Amino acid sequence: MAxxxxxxxxxxxxxAIVKQAQSLTAVGDYIAIHFDARAPAxxxxxxxxxxxxxxxxxxxxxxxxxxxxxxxxxRATLLAVEAAVDTFPRATHFYMLSGxxxxxxxxxxxxxxLDRREVDYIESFxxxxxxxxxxxxxxxxxxxxxxxxxxxxKRAFYAMFEVQKRLGLxxxxxxxxxxxxxxQWWCLRRRTVEAVLEFTRTRRxxxxxxxxxxxPDETFFQTVVRHLxxxxxxxxxTLTFLMFTDYGMPVVFYNDHYDLLLSQDALFARKISPEASxxxxxxxxxxxxxxxxxxxxxxxxxxxxxLTQKGRIGRRFAPRFWETESTLGxxxxxxxxxxxxxxxxxxxxxxxxxxxxxxxxEYLFNEDTTPLPDLGGIQSTMAKRHRxxxxxxxxxxxxxxxxxxxxxxxPSNLDLLEDFCRDRATTRVLEVQCQFSDSYLVGxxxxxxxxxxxxxxxxxxxxxxxxxxxxxHESDRxxxxxxxxxxxxxxxxxxxxNADPLARFLGVAHDKAKEIADTDYLFAD
Length: 525
Prior knowledge:
Elements: E1 4-10, H1 14-25, E2 30-35, H2 41-50, E3 57-59, H3 72-87, E4 93-98, E5 102-103, H4 107-116, E6 120-121, E7 125-126, H5 140-143, H6 154-167, E8 180-181, E9 187-189, H7 190-202, H8 204-211, H9 220-228, E10 234-235, E11 240-241, H10 258-262, E12 268-269, H11 277-288, H12 300-308, E13 333-339, H13 342-356, E14 360-361, H14 382-387, H15 389-400, E15 404-409, H16 414-421, E16 426-433, H17 438-447, H18 457-480, E17 486-490, H19 495-506, H20 510-517
Parallel strand pairs: 1-2, 1-4, 2-3, 6-10, 11-12, 13-15, 13-16, 14-15, 16-17
Antiparallel strand pairs: 4-9, 5-12, 7-8
């Protein structure tokens, strides 16, 4: 059975560290602690005194002053790993943690999870060909030497970089290494950790190289493990659930995140807020529990993106300069059906085709699979359709040899609606307002990745009002835009009532519009 030795790097809050160590070791696991030498000595002594009688706790033989982006973080990790290997011979796995991490599964679950597969869990992506580094330096991290801390010695850091760059003082990467990159939060098997420690003793050239790279905690273990362990024995992922904001800052979890955290496919999470006392208490109890069952839905990152983008919706108030003269044509009519329930809009278009013979195209700006004619490649990708929206629409008018065209759009496509409604062509918008049952909203959440088959009902119950309000907000934004030719059909209205806006939208007689609106299956789920 798996026995975990936790490698804890920490620098503050001695009381929290003591509680964390007591919680993790209470079930028979181990912990090796490195407490930053920049922290007060009395805080370190308080930790040692509180844990002195715990045989499952060890301390790094030396404390290092750690700095972000420095080799000191790797050195501190290695010191803690050495202490764990020497002190805990029964440990089978070594798991990196920070003081802000907490278990989001029971120890029973974690041990069973690690026993299932004979692999190391460490993010390990190709440094040069993956997109792990989104912006900023890439090659510069490695081929130049970095002796100073970028955050506390910024002037010296960049001055030294500029000198090396001007003089061409680059250095080669060790020839036998394929540089990898990934999260510093890993879980490695004992034989892997022992091989890494042996590597550090025999490959001083590699140690010297990484000692002056920038942010080596994202590359050292990731590269060395990939160098020493067969690819088939590496699962390139972290078992610690963490997210970052748009500004590159870690997302902090609070008391009301308990259910969300438990449903993620991970064993630990960071960062837990120091003030989240109830969350910490519940997670501490959870780790020691037996028989706990977990429904893994893993929708946390999708939910975070969905919820945090509210209020950040930008609008483009003027046409792009290359679109200034790209009108659809004054003599043309573009008719846009806007509906959140795509199947309802598609049924409506099918009936319109049968009754009017006006060319109709479904959600061409939302679905890759929407049938479109070959227009020379402009229709081939969703990005091209949006980028060349007016050119695409002109080509469709020409293809169908018609001055009237009907298309479908999702209510979220407000930028497209504003763009087309500014055109010299006549544009009319028909918003089809539907009613949304809870079962429909659940299906919608699953389709867009906000929930999965195993999402707990409690999570869904909290999520559904947010999704419902989001749909209402989209409808409000359309009305707030004050389009000149906006008409509305409602599922709650009778076919007779809906025939009037439909007739004005299509420019057809009331009896024809009534024939379309009277379709008995139009709004069925």
